[in-house]
Amino acid sequence: MTKKSWILTYFLVLSLFTTSFGQITSGTYRAVLKTLYKNDVPLISCEEASKLTSARFLDTRAYPEFKVSHISEARWVGYEEFSLDKVKDIDKGTPIVVYCSVGVRSEKVGRKLIEAGFTQVQNLYGSLFEWVNQGYPIVDMTGQPTQKVHAYSPAWGVWLNKGEKVYE
């Protein structure tokens, strides 16, 4: 590959990446996600995910994080606690959106689902932090809207720009 074609390919891939998932306004956060994701689970933007009507949202965070808030109707499956028994009632052709705080744990769970034969698994790009940053609603354990978000840790919480950070 010539240097010119390599540069052209690089900018084409970069433009596709930022066009498809350019909703994240922080270039630094986008760069961090690019280094964290293995890209073996398809990504879905918050905007695209918010329009899905038949998808099952699976929350892969620790249960104390889920208890603070989550996407409405999401099912908690955990990360360390995850097992395929938690999704045995879901048809393998059902659209599934996995998420966590930033998308690393959910990508790993998504990979397990794909390996188990689930055919429509997508990882929420930027995950719950980006969902909240873009103004999409979250609920508490009673189903009531909330602004509280478990921010995992102060180091990771820097990527959460909206909502009330909780570290319990």
From TrEMBL:
Residue intervals passing through the bilayer: none
Name under which the protein is recorded: Rhodanese-like domain-containing protein
SUPFAM superfamilies: Rhodanese/Cell cycle control phosphatase (SSF52821)
Superkingdom of source: Bacteria
Rhodanese domain ranges (all copies): 51-140
Pfam families: Rhodanese (PF00581)
Family matches, as InterPro entries: Rhodanese-like_dom, Rhodanese-like_dom_sf, STR17/STR18/HARC1-like
GO molecular function, one term: catalytic activity
